[in-house]
Amino acid sequence: SDPFRNDTTLRPYACTPGTYCLAGTGSNEVIEGEVSHAQFCAKGFFCEAASVSAKGSGPCPPGFICEKGTANPRPTPKGFFAEHSGTIEATACLPGFYAPTIENKDCYPCPPGSSCSLEGLFEAEECPPGTYRSDPEIGGFGSCI
């Protein structure tokens, strides 16, 4: 064999984003459970390119979600929140609360004069004419009375 041959098939290649490769991994193709191949990043974590462990670049930050194989943390959608690091699935805001933007770490109490009677709201509903709500405890879950 030619000692000066530039055989690029023998060079190590970085694993793709959303995966990790242990030392000695020979392929960036994912075959779960095969240590000679790339593996998906663990749930609750994200892996940028060239990650070498299942925890990759670290836990998913609050306000974001990271499913298995996440390359870039996804912001929580409107009406949902992710309070803690390492969140896998966003939680819907409970009745009486809403989340008007993306990347929510918390939900906000429904403001006076409005109602948040359903789960997962991103807009507080204005009370109908002739009704009002000032205390979230009156009428249950922020309903107008």
Keywords:
single chain, 145 residues, mainly beta, 3-stranded mixed β-sheet, two-stranded antiparallel sheet, rod-shaped
Please provide a written account of the structure:
- This protein has 145 residues and is mostly beta strands.
- Helix content is 0%, strand content 18%.
- It contains no helices and eleven strands.
- It is rod-shaped.
Short description:
The chain is mainly β. Helices cover 0% and strands 18% of the residues. The strands form 5 sheets. A 3-stranded mixed beta sheet has the order 1-3-2, with no helix packed on it. It has a two-stranded antiparallel sheet with strand order 4-5.
Cα end-to-end separation: 87 Å
Which structural class fits the helix and strand makeup? mainly beta
Integer average pLDDT:
88
Strand order of the largest sheet: 1-3-2
Radius of gyration from the alpha-carbon trace, in angstroms: 24 Å
Determine the strand fraction and express it as a percent band: 15-25%
Helix content: under 10%
Overall spatial form: rod-shaped
